[in-house]
Amino acid sequence: MLASSTRFCLFGHAPAVCAPLTRPRVAKQALICKAARDRDGHQRNDGATALPYVLATLELSKCSDIFELESTYNSNELFIDAISLAAAWVKLGKLYNAKVDACKYKQVTRNLLSKALKLVEEMDLRQISNVLWAMGKMRLDLAAEPLGPYLVEQMEGRLLVVLEEEGLSDPRSAEQLWFGLALCKYDWSGEVLRALLHQTLEAIRQWENCKAVSQVCQQLSTTLRQRVTLDDQQRALLAGAIASAIHADDKDPQIKIGLAKAVGSFLLAADLLQLPVTLHDVQRMNDITVNMPPGLVASEGGLLAAYKLLRCTRLGFQPSQADAQRWYLLLTEGARAPWDAYTVSWIAASLASCRNFKPPPELVQHIGAVVRSPPRGVEEGDLSRLVTACKAWGVKVPDTVASRLSSRSRPAPQ
């Protein structure tokens, strides 16, 4: 028997005699093998050819700061392909900090933009979505970059091709595309946005990923609202996707947290995009919110909860007296002290929209005192919301304040 182990070489060539693998080497070889198996789309099935590209991807993925990323990219530049380039962009997006080493980030970004222009025709949907996600994370102003418009033209053409070929069965790609196209500073073509919307709504009911659905809702309702118009059928499809997401089994604690985080975007879309959600669906979103884990309440804060409650009531749902009290605790526990006029006004306006809410005396007294003697510099929008609460709870509003606001209509949450 041979003193050293006999095994097959890394990519299935003839057996070779080599030293036994230690545990760290086994782990590294396993990672390389997995990455190599993931590279089928690159048509580099020969191990000797693929290995440097695989290693480049792994090394780029492990970089811990912008300087290491630049050094690793430069030392592997001959072996940067579409996969390793996407890995570099994702790492850049994760590392990005506009307040630290801005010049270095710009230099690395421009190197990656140049490489992307050369490799865009080789990218598949996942790689394009990775790149766009990173650009969105950085809020990259492509219009101001020397290569930006040229890259956009090429990337839009490639994106249209891969969307048609691959569809959006993978919700991760859809989530990244909507995020990147919305937050990367460029006026993307209507053709690309319409194609993305079409493919999204074709696949969205099959996604088991409420985070991806919420990302679509968030961007359609905010950044891209003026660029993308939904017809009645598309609104119905999006409403159906929201219903599927919120009625999923949430016994798993992580699913419960994910749903609680997503509800804000679902309510935002239902309200601003006039989606045909049912009262049963709105009640379900109410129930998810008032039963949020305590830690999530503290991290989200009272303002976000106030927006959710106000949108529930704008959609025609009225919480029960018990749920209204839960909302009050949610809002007041989540709001960070000391309360400013802006925070108080949204909390008051949202609670005043609940017909079954009985405000405690201390809340009524506090709101009344602010309205009678508005703090210096208080915004008229804040004062208007406070006056709305006063009228709902029978608190007298001074004539001077009422006349000042008489011409203003109730503002919607932003």
From TrEMBL:
Superkingdom per UniProt: Eukaryota
Annotated protein name in UniProt: Uncharacterized protein
